[in-house]
Amino acid sequence: MTWVGWLVFQSPDTQAWQNDYLQGTGCEMYTETLSPSFTGMTFPQASELCFTKLKLLLLAIEIKGEGGADSKISINPRGAKIAANTQGFFIAQSADEVKRAWFYCKACHEDIKDETLIKKCKCKNCKLFYSIK
Ligand SMILES: [Zn+2]
């Protein structure tokens, strides 16, 4: 387990089902930038969307410090809103799976039931966005 994994594991805020998941799967911790579709969601909303739609467990996010302060990893920050280009910390089987969090587009993927179909989409908004990264 990575140090972030350990941190999450030790956190009193980590919910029981998340701990079970951590222990049960042998998955690893990955980081990925959350797509623009997550911006403005609360952490619980984003986490639920990741779990139900993307089949990813979002455990923590990076909160950027204000006024040049260091950013910190915030585990299960219930009240936090997702800012643009937030780094998420995920439990998943592979780095490829975690890319779904980056590719997820509300306009294109909202009705998709099979998470393996969530790939880089071709809509106008996304094209603009992906060309920046
Ligand atoms: Zn799209």
Automatic annotation (TrEMBL):
Pfam families: BK_channel_a (PF03493). The keyword Ion transport applies. Its main location: membrane. Keywords: Ion channel, Ion transport, Membrane, Potassium, Potassium channel, Potassium transport, Transmembrane, Transmembrane helix, Transport. It is found in: Membrane. InterPro entries: K_chnl_BK_asu, K_chnl_Slo-like. GO terms for molecular function: large conductance calcium-activated potassium channel activity. It is a multi-pass membrane protein. One of its GO terms (cellular component) is postsynaptic membrane. Residues 12-61 form the Calcium-activated potassium channel BK alpha subunit domain. This is Calcium-activated potassium channel BK alpha subunit domain-containing protein.
